[in-house]
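Now for one protein, fold included:
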Amino acid sequence: MIQARTHSLHGVSRGLIALVLIFCSLHGLLPSCSAQQSERLVSAVNVVIFDNSREQFWSPFDAGFFGYSELAVSLRKAGYLVTESDFPVTISLRTLNPHGSVLVMGPATGQWYSQKEIDAIVEYVKKGGGLLILAEADASGGNNFQNPLSTQFGILVNSVSVVDTANSIGGTAGQWIFARSDFFGIDRVGLPVTGFVMAGGSAFPVLTPAETAAPRGAVIGAAASHGEGRVVCIADSQFLINGGKKEIGIGCAQNRAFALAVFDWLAGRERPIETRIVPQFTMMTGYTLNPKIRVEGTTNISTRIQGGTITPEIVKKASGEYTFDIDLQRDGFVEFIGSDGSRRTIVLLTPPRGGIGARLIFDMRGYGPDMGDPVNGLSEFAGLLRDKGYWVWGVDEGLINVAGLHGVIVVNPLRTEGRIFTGDMDAEGLRWLILAEPFSSIGIQNRFGEWFRNRGFSDRKVAAAEFAKRFGVNCLPYVVFETDSSRIIGRHPTFPILDYGIEECHGFRCGILETEGGRPVLVASEAAWGVEGGLGLRFGPHSMEPGPGDYRKQPVVGVLRDNAVVVADLNVFFSQHMRNRGNWALGLALADWIAGLDFKVPEL
């Protein structure tokens, strides 16, 4: 059977360390990989990192109304690796090869970047990095928050809204308007309540309203080159939310095409990469492997392998599905490189010796976080499982046959398309671990949600929440908020989650679960409550007391229900948090449960 997994720096073999170093060297990813997970480097050509270190409003893994999941899906389809980081920017930037990468700095409230962080971002751009600054023109502080950074490139965000009654969207009286981008060749971009920017020095307009707009001559988006890198600053961020009705968000007008054009320009792509190379597995384990690759489009494919041999080595005018034969002698990798710039990598690992032997599969379908993303993916979690002797692999395309598996780990799907299982999903001994992210909703009882409901908007179905319902667990549109300073890590709302015997487990933007029956396995403290996902971060700093629309019960973040565990925080298992002893212990405890062993806390 074809197996796949990712690596860990805990107890990892010398051969795999050599693989990582060679891989980074071949890709020009410097500095060298280190033992610090936060400094490990992304092994991809084009990487998009959303900074989340300052309670940013929007998340690429939020599949609700106000999330950026549709943008993440579009970027993934275009060949980008999409991730987010709640680490300080100075640490996140260490993971990036500036050339070909894009750092997204969205609006936030009440927390400023330090001068050290601003200097690091400027240096990153100077060395060839792409930077997208998204601001807001309202009382949230989204504009002033970004100006200390944007002015480094000659761009200043103004707090005055642009109004255009002649080119408004729906019945918004000129507040929601259409704009155009001559620079990117886009005729119609829909923006809700946008501000404007003032471009000086070498900065130039890339998004402008019609001549009928006020203030007259306003510029909504500007760009600049700095050293070897590029910068785009846009005075609105809601034009990229998931939204609905094609009146707001990425589905409005040509918003999606404009966004992709901006990212391609920032990443230095001369033209969009239209071909996709889609491997059936992104990580595989075995000695004799037969990976299947699907080519969407037409391109010449060449291969580069480390640790073994592959047949065929070249496929000319590749289009459709191909099977390759690999004989693996040692840990390595294989790259599939398209002549048009498309590229995908499969990490190849020799089988484990001994251990538990339980067969676990990561369901990475639905365009959620990438298994091979070492910055903010699941590599550390999967690596711990491998080190303990589990057979672990990941699938991001096609069917999953659950027959013969001990467990399936479903990783926050952003879409439901293509997520089909075969075999008996309720088979005795088969267990499920569902990792979900909190999501935003217009169903929350506040003025923002009410405004949209009164105008006929409806909520989106969230794939992870829909799947959790199958096991009798409801995911609620709230984010856990904690005011007890002894339980807050850093300046953002990362807090320990307490469980039976596990001293503490760090989470970040945790959701809330409800179920009849079952057993809580992750609970927040009694001082915590829930604020509406995506919206509570919108109107200024958090209140230190629950509001009328907040969730007032003690939040439950993880639930054990019959043959499934649902955890409403994917970040609990992200690599940057797995170095915490509590997260590590929780991961192994849940893995033991999947394997049919007693649910117990490992010895620390």
Notes: Residues 1-44, 486-494, 535-540 have pLDDT under 50 and may be disordered. The CA atoms of residues 419 and 582 lie 31 Å apart. Residues 276-408 form a domain with the Immunoglobulin-like fold (CATH 2.60.40.10). The chain has three domains: 41-266, 276-408, 430-594.
